[in-house]
Amino acid sequence: MGGVTSSIAAKLAFCPPSPSSYRLVSDEVTGLLLMNPFPHRENVEILKLPTRKGTEIVAMYVRHPMANSTLLYSHGNAADLGQMYELFIELSIHLKVNLMGYDYSGYGQSTGKPSENHTYADIEAAYKCLEESYGAKQEDVILYGQSVGSGPTLDLAARLPQLRAVVLHSPILSGLRVMYPVKKTYWFDIYKNIDKITLVNCPVLVIHGTSDEVVDCSHGKQLWELSKEKYEPLWLEGGSHCDLEHYPEYIKHLKKFITTVERSLSSRARASTSQSENQGGHVEMPRQSVDRREKPRESVDRREKEKPPKGPSKKSKLRLTFEQHLDRSRRSVDIHDKARKSVDQHHQIERGRKSVDRLDRVRSEQTRKSYI
After folding, report:
1. C-alpha closest to that of 247 among 236, 255, 258, 257
2. Is pLDDT of 300 > 50?
3. What mean pLDDT comes out for the span 99-122?
4. Is-contact 127 100, C-beta < 8 A?
């Protein structure tokens, strides 16, 4: 039952236009890849991108000279790049963004067969190209998913924590929920957006028509309710599944959203720069383990600072005491030596006096005898 339901859901989800609305040709002069029947534009590049599933998908990159963001657009079912070409050009102009659109495996001139897992590999290949070939960063990218395209969009968004924003255009809760009002997620369901939306950490804009007969508006409303960072949604009164781009409110609201998220990022960047300048122009990433080791060093420094600047240390006191002891000893020895010298000198003088007195007595005795 599960396999049959999953197969039915897949068949309903993937209906690539047949035949494809475009052909790929190579320019004879420049060798550039072109999308026939559309004329070559200087700001549009047509690419072939390999995927990790072994397929090769076709992508188009529209460059805007004043862009601050890049829109990675995953289109809906029953469409390919040829049908989206003019809309992508207009979105790039009106929103002032770079834009990359791509065909899923099995769509347009992309090789392989369409499947859920293939679309995940397809959007990864497109995002990898933005990073490696065009220098885009996570915080520069806005993921845009229309209808079935909300599946690969939310799958990638849940794995990019620094992403700038997400736009969900007529999104689905899951493939099975489009057909049946089930309350729980089954293992055989496809595009389990209801479970992945809670993992997205950036602003989310939901656009849905209130008269959508393919994907009920309740899908968009529930995904918006489950979003962590909600942006004012756009519920287009009377809008169906494939005509929302024709409403004036659509482009106006989308432009406001992109301007808001760009300003928000700029404000964070300015705050970070200001903090950097206040810290002397040097921003250091927190190193908890190092900081933890350095804290005792700060406390030691603090104790050293709290000590009086003058006065001998304990070692100095001991050294002084020992030197004073030696000095006293030297003084006592010197005094003893002086005393001994003075005594010896006195003895010598006394001895000399005694010898002189003895000699005087002998002489006087001899003189006296001679007179006698």
Report:
1. 236
2. no
3. 97
4. no
- The CA angle 59-61-67, to the nearest 5 degrees, is 150
Query: Which residues does residue 323 pair with via DSSP β-bridges, in sequence order?
Result: none
Q: Record the tokens describing residue 159, joined without a space.
A: 């794995």
DSSP structural state of residue 280? T
Of the candidates 143, 139, 74, the one whose C-alpha atom is nearest the C-alpha of residue 104 is: 74
Residue 40: count of CB within 10 angstroms of its CB: 11
Peptide bond preceding 161 in cis form (omega within 30 of 0): no
Q: Give me the residue label for tokens 């006592």.
A: 332
Other Cβ atoms within 10 Å of 221 Cβ, number: 15
From 105, 110, 147, 150, active-site residue: 147
301 is catalytic: no
Burial code (b: 16+ CB inside 10 Å, e: under 16) for 114-143 equals bbbebbbbbbbbbbebbeeeeebeebbbbb
Element (H, E) at 33: strand 33-36
In this structure, how many other beta carbons lie within 10 angstroms of the beta carbon of residue 20? 18
Please tell me which residue in 208, 212, 227, 253 is annotated as part of the active site: 212
In DSSP terms, 206 is beta-bridged to 168
What is the identity of the amino acid at 90?
A: E
Cα separation, 228 vs 256, in Å, equals 20
Confidence band for 264, pLDDT divided at 50, 70 and 90:
confident
Give me 19's structure tokens: 């035949």
* Average pLDDT, integer, range 331-347: 44
Residue 289 appears among annotated catalytic residues: no
Distance CA 156, CA 124 (A): 7
Tell which residue, 152, 167, 177, 53, has the closest CA to residue 102. 152
Q: Which of 75, 208, 241, 253 is catalytic?
A: 241
Active site residue 147: yes
Give the span between the Cα atoms of 99 and 86, in whole angstroms. Answer: 12
Give the bridge partners for 204, in sequence order.
Answer: 166, 230
Average pLDDT in the chain: 80
Angstrom CA distances, 231 to 145, 204, 254, 257, 260, stand at 16, 6, 11, 8, 10
CB contact at 8 A, 120 and 152 = yes
